[in-house]
Design a protein that fits this description.
- With 295 residues, this protein is an alpha/beta fold.
- It has a single domain, classed as TIM Barrel (Alpha-Beta Barrel), CATH 3.20.20.
- The protein contains 13 helices and 8 strands.
- Strands 7-6-5-4-3-2-1-8 form an 8-stranded parallel beta sheet.
- Strand 2, helix 2 (54-68) and strand 3 (74-77) form a beta-alpha-beta unit.
- The longest helix is centred in the C-terminal third of the chain and has 17 residues, at 227-243.
- The chain is globular and about 50 Å long.
Length: 295
């Protein structure tokens, strides 16, 4: 399935007892299929995947693939800092019907360049669907070098990269590798328009959890080379985007969704905790200020 535009990095809703709320997950999946999202990422950072068991992840994948039913692409986070686990997860989730798998670089036990190349090549060989690499050095402590990307971009089962370093100079170098067989997606909501102006085909977005139509419209305008109009949306939403990162993701976005009230996404898996009340008031005030724009 074609992948472009606003791709929501979906939260995982929890019940009061901490279990996954599948009724609400189903509603969220339907909502994004019906509100112009170009794809849905499950088991990502925003989905608190690192706190889910393998059994929970497998059930979420089966449920999501069935519920979406090919309406939009489903991208499943399948990365690990252990290559063998990343291979196992990617193979399993691709067999369960994922359209793409999203694979983060190793973290904590950071590797050298040859190890990184072998890591992604092993995942690409095991996965039955295309692989999107995830570059987020702020989370992992390492970045995919351009020289490594030059090799990995030639792999027939590596579709592209989610670029979330926030470094436009790095992204510009990545843009030289883009073409019909290698694609880039912004991993930062605050620079969607700049990233798409240099070749990104969309964004994997936290913002889209609370403003799906506006995020999709911004991407659509960029894809149609209407950058001034897209920039207006970017600037209108910029304070909200920044407020969604007043604390570590996904704490603020879940607080925002709770405040808006369309969905009951519940709390967090430890070690995440409730948003600081002072910061939450800042976020809520911004939502009130632009509520006519986002809902």
């Amino acid at each position: 399935m074609e992948l472009k535009g606003s791709i929501v990095a979906l939260v995982t809703p929890f019940n009061q007892d901490g279990s996954v709320n599948y009724d609400e997950l189903g509603r969220l999946l339907d909502y994004h299929c019906d509100n112009n999202s170009g794809g849905i990422v499950i088991l990502g950072t925003t989905g608190e995947a690192s706190t889910l068991s393998f059994d929970e992840e497998e059930k979420i994948v089966k449920f999501s693939v069935a519920r979406v039913n090919h309406r939009v692409p489903v991208i499943v986070g399948s990365g690990s800092n252990e290559t063998a686990k990343a291979v196992t997860y990617s193979k399993k989730y691709s067999e369960l019907g994922a359209d793409y798998v999203l694979v983060i670089t190793p973290y904590y036990n950071k590797t050298n360049e040859t190890g990184l190349i072998k890591h992604f090549e092993a995942v690409a060989a095991a996965s039955k669907c295309p692989v999107i690499m995830y570059n987020v050095p702020g989370r992992t402590g390492m970045s995919i070098s351009i020289s490594a990307l030059e090799k990995l971009a030639k792999n027939p089962n590596i579709y592209g990269i989610k670029e979330a370093s926030g470094n436009m100079s790095y992204a510009a170098k990545v843009s030289k590798l883009l073409g019909k067989d290698f694609h880039m997606f912004s991993g930062n909501d605050d620079i969607i328009v700049p990233m798409m102006s240099i070749g990104a085909e969309g964004v994997i977005s936290v913002l889209a959890n609370v403003a799906p139509k506006q995020t999709a419209k911004m991407c659509e305008l960029c894809l149609n080379n209407q950058y001034p109009e897209a920039l207006k949306i970017q600037n209108d939403l910029l304070t909200l985007i920044n407020d969604l990162f007043l604390e570590v993701n996904p704490i603020p976005v879940k607080a925002a969704m709770d405040y808006i009230g369309l969905f009951n996404v519940g709390g967090y898996r430890a070690p995440l905790d409730d948003m600081d009340p002072t910061k939450r008031k800042v976020l809520e005030a911004e939502i009130d200020r632009i509520k006519e724009l986002i809902y």
